[in-house]
Amino acid sequence: MNEQxxxxxxxxxxxxxxxxxxxxxxxxxxxxxxxxxxxxxRTGYKWELEYLDVVTENQWQYWIxxxxxxxxxxxxxxxxxxxxxxxxxxxxxxxxxYPSTLQLRYLPASSTIIKEEYDLKKILKAIIDENNLKSQVxxxxxxxxxxxxxxxxxxxxxxxxxxxxxxxxxxAVMAIxxxxxxxxxxxxxxxxxxQ
Length: 195
Fold this sequence. Notes:
Layout: H1 3-32, H2 34-43, E1 47-51, E2 53-55, H3 57-67, E3 82-84, H4 89-97, E4 112-115, H5 120-130, E5 137-142, E6 148-152, H6 153-158, H7 161-164, E7 171-175, E8 180-184, E9 189-194
Parallel strand pairs: 2-3
Antiparallel strand pairs: 1-6, 4-9, 5-6, 5-7, 7-8, 8-9
Helix pairs in contact: 1-3
């Protein structure tokens, strides 16, 4: 085998690895996130994605091809929801502005921690009212998943929060500029923090 054949074989292998990485991420999001997007979509409230995923230049086209296929094609997502790069910038803003107090799991530092088994809507509304948070577009995202949703805080309160803020996920509701954070851990802890 000459050098050109080796190079072609290596390039083919790299393309296959990139395709597999996108296929795996897409399958993960279809399994764990897409139902949430469908729930929000059915409400009729205005929402959009800041990003669905952040990928390398070589993976980008594979994601664009995925967006044209079921079930992704059921949404009017534009190609701009797939960012090229290495930085999940909204997630990074969360970790920079609100570092974890724990080593083994994420729990942001704050003076407010509520651990209750009450109605999610009542807890979220109480935190919003207590901290005088106004109607505004916010980021809603799940710490272990790449998609970041932009939705109005008032509209978020109207959704079925048991489905949007699942029990088995760490969920962040954060101001667009990161100036405040409402965080719900999968252990049922609620944290409010301000920068």
